[in-house]
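Human
Can I borrow your eye for a moment on a structure tokenisation matter? Give me a protein, with the fold worked out from its sequence. Write it directly below this note and I will take it from there.

Assistant
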Amino acid sequence: TQAACRKLSDHGIGMVSQTVLLKEINDDTETLVDLFYGLLEINVKPYYLLQCDPVQGSAHFRTSVEKGIELIRSLHGRISGLAVPQYVIDAPGGGGKVPILGTEQIRREGDEVAFLNYEDREYRYPDPREKR
């Protein structure tokens, strides 16, 4: 709750959020602006915006990576840098959280995107193109 976050903050405990990007729930700029400013108001730093993992049963929640990039770029133009989280993919197979800063760091191959993690190891992430 907001009161609990404020109490923790008042005692010097820093807090960050890890928000999962969810199709038709928080995949628009206005919703994310409201969410991230709301988090800052209760002293929670928006830290990660996570691409939804490709786990069984999650397909209807997943946006494309391109949509996530578009949203982060939109946020950079609309709100304080303090309110913009880092957009990341949790690399399949234990590759860690990989920042996705723009299309120069990823390439699309059919229904997958390929990217490098912090060890320069390539990972492929299932990412069907969104129907527009």
Notes: Strands lie at 15-21, 44-51, 86-91, 96-99, 106-109, 112-116, 122-126.
